[in-house]
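Structural prep section.
Before we set up the soaks we want a predicted structure of the protein with N-hydroxy-L-asparagine in place, mainly to decide which crystallisation condition to try first. Input record follows.
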Amino acid sequence: MEGRRKFIKLSVLSTIAGLPLTGFPKSPLVSSTEYTAAQFKPQILSTWNHGMAANDKAWEVLGSGGTILDAVEQGVMVTENDLRNLSVGLQGLPDREGIVTLDASIMKGDGSCGAVAFVRQVKHPISLARKVMEKTPHVMIVGEGARQFALSEGVPMEEEKLSPNAKEAYNRWKEEANYQPIINIENHDTIGMIGLDKDGSMAGSCTTSGLAYKMHGRVGDSPIIGAGLFVDDTVGAATATGLGEEVIRICGAFLIVELMRQGRTPQEACEEAVKRAVAKSKDLDNTQIGFLAMNKEGSFGAHAIRPGFNFAQHHQNGSELVDSGSWFK
Ligand code: SD4
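Run finished without errors. Recording the tokens verbatim:
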């Protein structure tokens, strides 16, 4: 976390001054990470280091005969359950009113999808998103309606109270931030997971407590199909983490899948999406976005605006945490 704080403070003035006439800022350094040669099928990829444990679970589900959809659902449930995690699940950091509201989406490669947003008290928003997909004619249900749907489905719910860690952090934030609706890029590490099974079916999931100390009612990219998550198993899948407003603005995950459809590698597509986000950013100094993508052959790529983004990878040779390249060095 300390490292992420530091890079946020890096000056970006030299880059802004270097805006070329094409409209796209020029990256100060060429991206360092290339994954284009590697291909794995099946494969599970997740954002951030908490993705390691989530991927292990997803892999186990696949190995015991579960579908790729089961795998991406049950994988991120590990993170939703992780009491140390302050950016996913009910133990996450609250909004500026002190209320935890959750966003999640799930998608299959055939275009089926479901999402919940601004939902309270639901222990596994990813499973509720799956129920929206499978049991309703809708794609997204939000707020009190989503909570009522959860109650009617009998899914696990919890009494509304902040976890000890979230409470401590929130109390500290209240003193310093004085209730300003700041866009804070330090304490949010959404899990987005994308998976490919041995037969080429793909699915993805994305779940978060969203931006720490957000305005009450604010919804980020994670539950927005096409922004935080998009899967089309004729092409590939992509997910996003970081400042949701900037991801929504460019339809990040959809953009990456469409770039792959046009022939870009997952790595090239992620880099192009980052470039697009940088060009459209309303607040580059305070923005971090990380994209993660995989195509239907099992090639993969990742890219971020700033250093510090990593992703977890699991395939038949084992699992590892991989550092992503970034637009800023
Ligand atoms: C949001 N994209 O709510 C989420 C937050 C996040 O890593 O991804 N943090 O904007």
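Observations: The domain at 2-8+33-326 is CATH 3.60.20.30 (Glutamine Phosphoribosylpyrophosphate, subunit 1, domain 1).
Flagged for discussion at group meeting.
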